[in-house]
Amino acid sequence: MNLPNKLTMFRICLVPIFVIFMYLPLDNKFGISLLIFIIAALTDALDGKLARRYNLITDFGKLMDPLADKLLVIAALICLIEKSLIPGWIVLIIVSRELAVSIMRAIVAGDGKVVAAGISGKLKTVTQMLAIVLLLFGAQIDSSLVLNIGTFMIYVACLLTIYSGYEYFSQNKEIFGDR
Strand, helix or coil at 100? Predict the structure, then answer.
């Protein structure tokens, strides 16, 4: 397993650690969770950069990197619902899109094809992660301004989620025509 793929697997391992800290009875639980989330998000940027720079792109990475992102983001969003920082309907939209795209990827993977993440999907992920960082930071420092900016960003992320889901299916409709 190459280094970018190891970083992806490390990111997946950080997900339960993030969740555990979100629920520990600590005054700085949001700050610790924020740090874990940022480390995980940075591994996302680093694994892709290393894979492209050193030609270490693999089918495993194409499949697992977006899955690791989904696990991290969805875990964080569910925690943020429970902490009353975001509305549940936004998470429902995001999770529905992620599930639909993941199912599509699994179907085509069975045919030996891989659908890599597109630009809009990457922008969606970055926006989701930025919103989560702002919400966690705002909760830690008890700042309504930062929380409001984070809330605005999660709405933007929701719109990008819908758009990128539409784009994935419209750009890959020929894959389903073969079935």
Answer: helix
- 128: nearest Cα among 143, 105, 150: 150
* Angstrom distances, CA of residue 159 to CA of 55, 71, 89, 97, 156: 33, 19, 13, 11, 5
Contacts of 173 (CB under 8 A, 6+ apart): none
Per the CB < 8 A criterion, the answer to whether 171 and 104 are in contact is: no
Question: Per-residue pLDDT tens for 78-116?
Answer: 999 999 999 999 999 999 999 998 888 788 777 777 776
CATH no., domain 3-171: 1.20.120.1760
Report domain extents, the chain: 3-171
How many other C-beta atoms lie within 10 A of the C-beta of residue 54? Answer: 11
pLDDT of residue 177: 61
**Is residue 62 a contact partner of residue 7, using CB atoms and an 8 Å limit?**
no
pTM of the prediction? Answer: 0.90
The contacts found for 80-86 with CB under 8 angstroms, 24 or more apart, are 80/132, 80/135, 80/136, 83/22, 83/139, 85/135, 85/139, 85/147, 85/150, 85/151, 86/135, 86/151, 86/154
Residues in the chain: 179
- Give pLDDT tens digits for 127-163: 999 999 999 999 999 999 999 999 999 999 999 999 9
